[in-house]
Amino acid sequence: MPDALPPLREVIAKYELRAKKQLGQNFLLDLNLTSKIARRAGDLAQCDVLEIGPGPGGLTRALLMEGARHVVAIERDARCLPALAEIEAAYPGRLTVLEGDALALDPLPHLTPPIRIVANLPYNVGTELLLRWLTPDTWPPFWQSLTLMFQKEVAERIVAQPGSKAYGRLSILAQWRCDARLAFTLPPQAFTPPPKVSSAVVQLDRLEAPRYPADPQILSDVVARAFNQRRKMLRASLRGLLPDIEEVLTGVGIAPTQRAEEIGLEAFCALARAVAERR
Ligand code: SAM
Fold it and tell me: Which residues are in the Ribosomal RNA adenine methylase transferase N-terminal domain (predicted)?
């Protein structure tokens, strides 16, 4: 059932929201698609939702229609604010729009747990936001789940398994403390204007505790070094970590001649623990 608000094409024409490339503006105008994303986020009725980059408000409307208790949306482009104000008026008390940069603004004072994050992310800040959400100072984080649209290539890196080219730091940081799934992909034509590449929605549900114990800083450091030189053997890429790195690798069952992309999450965590013991 569509809401009582005008179709998004009319909204875009009325407020002259010509897409700006530098803001990563590729809008979803089909309410069936935005509703599909909102439904993928799970039961929203008891949750506050944080949305980054509502733009003209297609996904925002779907989140509200799907019953989100309260949506807090951060938008950098002031041109979108009048369109979002119309949505605020149609759903009194259920939408809070914050104007600003999602990398700089703290939305937490406006949110009440449980909190889900749902967004069609601007490609230029998407990975940085995800990394921040995945690496808070304490775990569990302020959010329950992330339902995020990325370029398909980034989505594949998040859910990648060892042995694939896409497997790397993002896969490990995501899968260490979350269930990470690729929900569905969308072709460029689903967006206005169409981007150059396909997109995909990833669903990340936080685990209450990490899958395997490890110090977050040390794991992140080990993984960053290992994948920075992903074609090198680990004994070379991790040389700077500890003088006796070959011994440490062997001690946790990793051959020093192996490469980062062959090593699973559990082994990386064991390595991080062994490094922690030597420090
Ligand atoms: N949610 C809308 C949709 O699905 O049609 C728009 C998605 S569009 C891919 C990304 C949106 O993020 C744009 O509205 C853009 O203005 C906004 N944006 C870009 N950079 C931002 C930032 N640093 N902080 C907040 N919003 C940003």
Answer: 33-208
* Residue 167 in this model has a pLDDT that exceeds 80: yes
Cα(106)–Cα(98) distance, integer angstroms: 10
CA of 185 to the centre of ligand 1 (A): 19
pLDDT of 2 > 80? The answer is no
Q: Is residue 126 in contact with ligand 1, taking CB distance under 6 Å?
A: no
* Residues sharing a CB contact under 8 Å with residue 31, sequence separation 6 or more, in sequence order: 2, 8, 58, 61, 62
The correct CATH number of 216-278 out of 3.30.530.20, 1.10.10.10, 3.30.200.20, 1.10.8.100 is 1.10.8.100
Best residue among 12, 22, 27 to mutate for probing ligand 1, ranked by most atoms within 8 Å of CB: 27
